[in-house]
């Protein structure tokens, strides 16, 4: 009976638990130094991650505090001061340079791209706007549309069409008909009149209440006449 109890103590379901625990203890003992190094590395990495997050949040807040004046200049159409600062507050260029990776720097790319577009510096507009990313549908659409405008000004109509289509595909009532109109006109320039008709008809069917829809029949007729 005692022997059975001993066997029961050592084995459950055919598993030699004492043997397994013994092997585990032996492994820990033999690899104690390596395990401590691994554990230490995990602790250090965790600390670095927390520290980086705190630093990044502080950087973003500081950048936002610094950028408010540039945003005011942007709203007032003081483009050079918005872009390069006024001597007391930094402009968007400096925010991008000094606070790279923050939300503020990301937004500064958007503002800078729009400014460069207005100033006629089209490649700089493209470079900055392509560096901007956001889940906000409105600014995402307007950024894509602005890139389309810049490519159009550079007479790179294929690229312009690509970006106008991406902007229109956001399906925003206030913006998509604008980009569809521009898309149709670019397609006409590219002699892709069937696609121009398609873009114009999308305005008529999906955005019938838009300003662009009021005169869209003329554009459809013009494009169809070229088929």
Automatic annotation (TrEMBL):
TPR repeats lie at residues 141-174. The chain crosses the membrane at residues 35-55. It holds the Pfam family TPR_21. The keyword 4Fe-4S does not apply. Keywords: Membrane, TPR repeat, Transmembrane, Transmembrane helix. Residues 36-211 form the Ancillary SecYEG translocon subunit/Cell division coordinator CpoB TPR domain. InterPro entries: SecYEG/CpoB_TPR, TPR-like_helical_dom_sf, TPR_rpt. This is Ancillary SecYEG translocon subunit/Cell division coordinator CpoB TPR domain-containing protein. It comes from Solitalea canadensis (strain ATCC 29591 / DSM 3403 / JCM 21819 / LMG 8368 / NBRC 15130 / NCIMB 12057 / USAM 9D) (Flexibacter canadensis).
């Amino acid at each position: 009976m005692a022997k059975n109890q001993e066997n029961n103590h050592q084995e459950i379901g055919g598993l030699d638990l004492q043997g397994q625990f013994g092997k585990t203890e032996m492994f820990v003992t033999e690899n104690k130094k390596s395990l401590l190094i691994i554990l230490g590395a995990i602790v250090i990495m965790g600390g670095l991650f927390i520290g980086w997050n705190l630093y990044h949040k502080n950087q973003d807040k500081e950048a936002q505090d610094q950028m408010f004046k540039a945003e005011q200049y942007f709203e007032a159409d003081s483009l050079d001061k918005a872009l390069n600062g006024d001597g007391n507050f930094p402009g968007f260029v400096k925010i991008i340079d000094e606070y790279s990776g923050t939300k503020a720097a990301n937004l500064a790319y958007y503002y800078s791209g729009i400014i460069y577009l207005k100033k006629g510096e089209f490649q700089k507009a493209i470079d900055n706007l392509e560096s901007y990313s956001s889940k906000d549908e409105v600014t995402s659409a307007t950024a894509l549309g602005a890139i389309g405008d810049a490519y159009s000004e550079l007479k790179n109509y294929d690229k312009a069409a690509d970006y106008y289509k991406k902007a229109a595909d956001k399906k925003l009532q206030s913006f998509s008909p604008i980009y569809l109109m521009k898309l149709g006109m670019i397609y006409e320039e590219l002699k892709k009149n069937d696609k121009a008709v398609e873009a114009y008809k999308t305005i008529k069917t999906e955005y019938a209440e838009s300003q662009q829809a009021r005169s869209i029949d003329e554009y459809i007729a013009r494009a169809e006449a070229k088929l």
